[in-house]
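Subject: sequence -> structure tokens, single chain

Hey, anyone have a minute? Need the predicted structure for the following. Not urgent.
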Amino acid sequence: MNWIIAKGLLIPFLGTSLGSALVFFMKKELDVKLQNVLSGFAAGVMVAASVWSLLIPSMDMVSDRGKLAFIPAAVGFCAGMIFLLILDKVVPHMHLDESEEGPKSSLQKTTMMVLAVTLHNIPEGMAVGILYAGWASGSAQITQAGALTLALGIAIQNFPEGAIISMPLHSKGLSKAKACWYGVLSGIVEPVAGLVTILLASQVASILPYFLSFAAGAMIFVVVEELVPEMAEGEHSNLGTIAFMLGFVLMMILDVALG
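Reply:
Had a minute. Here:
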């Protein structure tokens, strides 16, 4: 079981790493249309994953409460969004669509960019970790296939996100190798966050539904705060919208068919 969980936690990290490696095959500047598509697709996957893999299982786990089964999902969801909002304000970082103009040095900008992406990856690692924790605890509402589906879904959305990380870093003057390496490093937080979540969840199994919805709220925060503005940037927002639709439908199909 431990090996299965370890592989599941590493799958999203692999997606980020492969996406970051795209910097070796693409031009220095990331085309606005392509960024719209990549951000929209990633946002669609994350929204679908939050609903089918996290919020619905959270309510299913307390279905015996009847009409009050929404309480853990609602409380955890709000807590997750508020937590990321506080983290977003407290930790100094640079939003991915922020202008490069200003007094900050190239090194400071690079550091802040990596911090921004690291913040993105924390809730994704938490989400995978909490599902594997639920499966390991024997919860009937969470299966190994369901946890693997979420890990694969996040890996899929991490692949384009990896390019969104490494390409701007390369455009700031970093070599392709360094830009790729920073992208890979930003993804390490995912298996770490997943492992920490599993360790915590194993101690407080009774509030597992709150953990699930907490992870969902944190992921939706990333979508609203970062990915949606990026997918609507410029004059090609329709491309981002279509990509969102495709990402959402793909993750929904994966979760229903495999979960």
